[in-house]
Specification:
The chain is of the alpha+beta class and about 425 residues long. The protein has four domains: about 10-120, 2-Layer Sandwich (Methyltransferase, Cobalt-precorrin-4 Transmethylase, Domain 2), CATH 3.30.950; about 130-180, no CATH class; about 190-350, Heat Shock Protein 90 (2-Layer Sandwich), CATH 3.30.565; about 360-415, Arc Repressor Mutant, subunit A (Orthogonal Bundle). The protein has helices spanning about 20-25, 50-65, 110-120, 140-150, 155-165, 175-180, 210-225, 245-255, 290-295, 305-310, 320-330, 360-370, 375-385, 385-400, and strands spanning about 10, 30-35, 65, 70-75, 80-85, 95, 100-105, 105-110, 190-195, 200-205, 225-230, 235-240, 265-270, 275-280, 335-340, 345-350, 375, 405, 415. The strands form five sheets. Strands 10-9-13-14-16-15 form a six-stranded mixed beta sheet, with helices on one face. A hairpin with a 6-residue loop joins β18 and β19 (about 415). α7 runs antiparallel to α8, α8 (about 245-255) runs antiparallel to α11 and α12 packs across α14 (about 385-400). The longest helix has 16 residues, at about 210-225. About 35% of the residues are buried.
């Protein structure tokens, strides 16, 4: 016998308690209720199957508002009745004016935030489409991006309407507020760690500004630490230790697909060997984990925001982000990881090409630490190496992109990138 789950519940007899689960299934993903099965999964059967079917039908019809789509299938041999409930379009579906949801095998009332989401879904609206409470908005950053990418000279009302950011009545949407120069939405929290999470080197909270600016500034920071100039055979070339396209896709996906009514921030955790991008909110109800991992996202959670990101080149094509991230690691030993939870999605991008250091290079790098700017003589003292070795090692580290030199002559100093 199949175990109880989020979409399967057993009831030994017909009592009104099953109506809460009918509400939950109609609101979230659908499911089945099997009557005549004990909590342990044993078949006990219903004595009068026909009367029980009639009771179930009457209870659903009289108690769930609006009426969901369902079917009742009796098994006269075992005495088991299967009630199948479909997820409906007219949310919220309520029992005694309360909407319910499933959490594993439990049925619980939805909270205020989830109720608002159900109401939006029942109205066939997305969060980024509804009118923003903020209507005094400016779009300088969006205007600059639109000018450079699309050749739009001025971000006029007509331009905003073409992006879907302003209604025909001149009302800004939540998508407009997210793209505005100043807003009240949570932003991106970027933290750069050392060898452990207790070793924090930098932290930047990019809240209250256009999500485009947040993405651009985060990508600039990531580029500083996961890209480097390398000299090989007398030629200088740029090396990405983490593919830049994968970083861009992961961050843009986090912005476009997150639940913006959640006050949690998008977090970007920078580690020496990986970057972890976490966005609030799990998958939409209609999207399975397998579909997500296989790049089968047919509709973004924030379609207006996704449309702007698509037109400005932040995403290549709707629904292809996961596939593109995976393709960036083809032929590489390290692979990206995707952690899908009920309240968040994390994408881990490992360093695809590690910078290998000799023992002397590691000594000099350790002497510099992470934030120090030091002259050569002080590096000699801290590393315990001779002048000639330090000079040669600094040149090697500079070529590998690990160390940056500033100044010239006696004013020359070095710092770790």
């Amino acid at each position: 016998m199949e175990r109880e789950s989020r979409n399967l519940e057993y009831k030994e007899s017909v009592t009104r308690s099953f109506l809460k689960t009918v509400s939950a299934y109609a609101n979230h993903g659908g499911g089945r209720i099997l009557f005549g099965i004990s909590d342990e999964g044993d078949v006990v059967g219903i004595s009068d199957v026909n009367q029980a079917c009639l009771d179930v039908e009457n209870m659903v019809n009289d108690s769930i508002e609006p009426l969901p789509t369902y079917s009742i299938e009796p098994d006269m041999t075992t005495g088991v009745i299967t009630l199948s409930v479909e997820e409906g379009p007219s949310k919220p579906y309520c029992f005694k004016r309360v909407a319910y949801r499933r959490s594993d095998t439990a049925t619980l009332p939805v909270d205020r935030l989830e109720m608002q989401r159900l109401i939006l879904a029942g109205s066939n609206l997305d969060f980024d489409e509804i009118a923003s409470p903020e209507q005094s908005l400016t779009f300088s950053y969006l205007g600059k991006k639109a000018s450079s990418v699309l050749g739009i000279e001025k971000m006029s009302d007509d331009s905003l309407k073409s992006f879907g950011l302003m209604s025909h009545d001149g009302v800004y949407s939540n998508a407009a507020a997210l793209l505005a120069d100043v807003n009240s939405f949570p932003g991106v929290d970027v933290v750069r760690f050392g060898d452990t999470i207790n070793d924090i080197h930098e932290r930047h909270d990019m809240s209250g500004v256009s999500v485009l600016r947040q993405v651009d500034e985060t990508l600039e920071m990531l580029d500083r630490f996961y890209s480097l100039d390398r000299i090989e055979h007398g030629k200088r070339g740029r090396v990405e230790t983490i593919p830049a396209d994968a970083l861009r896709e992961a961050l843009a996906n986090a912005v476009v697909h997150r639940q913006w009514d959640d006050r949690a921030r998008i977090t970007v955790a920078m580690h020496p060997d990986r970057v972890v991008v976490t966005s609030p909110g799990g998958l939409p109800e209609t999207l399975s984990v397998d579909s997500y991992l296989n790049g089968m996202i047919s509709r973004p959670r924030n379609p207006l925001l996704a449309y702007v990101f698509l037109r400005l080149g932040y995403i290549e094509q709707l629904g292809t982000g996961i596939a593109r991230i995976k393709s960036c690691y083809e032929g590489k030993p390290a692979k990206p990881q995707f952690d899908v939870r009920e309240d968040a999605i994390s994408v881990t991008l490992p360093v695809a090409e590690m910078v290998r250091l000799t023992m002397e290079e590691q000594q000099v790098a350790d002497a510099l630490g992470t934030a120090l700017v030091l002259p050569r003589a002080q590096i000699e003292q801290l590393s315990g190496l001779s002048k000639g070795v330090v000079l040669r090692t600094l040149q090697s580290l500079e070529a590998k992109g690990v160390v940056q030199r500033t100044g010239s002559g006696r004013s020359t100093k070095y710092r770790k990138r």
